[in-house]
Specification:
Layout (H helix, E strand, L loop, with lengths): L1 E7 L6 H9 L7 E6 L6 H9 L4 E4 L6 H10 L5 E5 L4 E2 L3 H11 L4 E9 L5 E3 L2 H4 L7 H7 L8 E4 L3 H4 L9 H11 L4 E12 L13 H16 L4
Parallel strand pairs: 1-2, 1-4, 2-3, 6-9
Antiparallel strand pairs: 4-8, 5-9, 6-7, 6-8
Helix pairs in contact: 6-8
Length: 234
């Protein structure tokens, strides 16, 4: 059984398209969990009207941000393999198959893959997100503190990893960075698929991955991550 965890916020323009690209790759027994962060548009009603009970929808009591929303979604996941998913993107048809192959044949604990970078009209900006964003996924813990190279929308992991990173520390910057660091701290096997397995849509209104931070915010964020590592006990 697989679980796909999706956090939504004002995603009515994209979320149905994304969920369609996901569901056609899943079996009926697989789980899709959506945690909505108090959207002000029709995101929740659209999902329910389009997919009915096939997609489990939970709405936060108050706006909590993407980290807490993903934490809740992951805590509700029942599958042996958990995929993280953003509301804006489009999965390539072979994504699930290729990721599962890495788990099965390379004995991976966590899998990360590349993606096409596209604009809001799905025109290609770059053929590789990792190159476009200068991601160095083999840079180790210290390198990942300095610059997170793990994008949650391109990540999947075994359910056995979940107790190693949940609950998410309050001082971390993003859930995907912390999941990767927790895997490294526990010497879990991380496999990188160089192939782009989704369209990573950068339309200017994305909830994650767009905002440029000040130097102070960058330093503060890194110190928060270091604090979480120093406090880490599993």
């Amino acid at each position: 059984m697989l679980s796909v965890c999706l956090a939504t916020y004002n995603g009515e323009d994209f979320v149905v398209r994304q969920l369609e690209s996901v569901l056609k790759q899943l079996n009926d027994s697989d789980q899709v969990v959506v945690v909505d962060d108090c959207s002000k548009d029709q995101t929740v009603s659209l999902i329910k009207e389009t997919f009915g009970g096939r997609v489990e929808v939970f709405v936060n009591a108050s706006n909590s941000g993407p980290v807490k929303s993903f934490e809740k979604a992951i805590s509700l996941a029942k599958g042996d393999i958990v995929f993280l998913c953003d509301q804006d993107d489009i999965w390539e048809d072979e994504k699930v198959e290729r990721v599962l192959d890495a788990f099965q044949n390379q004995e991976a604990d966590l899998v990360i893959h590349d993606a096409y970078v596209v604009d809001g009209n799905l025109q290609t900006i770059h053929s590789s997100w990792n190159q476009y964003n200068n991601n160095q996924v083999n840079q180790g813990i210290m390198g990942n503190i300095m610059k997170n190279a793990f994008t949650g929308a391109m990540m999947a992991f075994r359910k056995e990893l979940v107790p190693l990173f949940l609950p998410l520390p309050g001082t971390i910057e993003m859930h995907d960075q912390w999941i990767a660091i927790a895997a490294m701290l526990n010497k879990k096997k991380i496999v990188t698929i160089q192939e782009p397995l989704m369209k990573y849509v950068r339309h200017g209104g994305n909830v994650t991955g767009m905002k440029k931070r000040s130097l102070f915010e960058q330093i503060e964020g890194r110190l928060g991550t270091v604090t979480a590592i120093l406090r880490y006990r599993k």
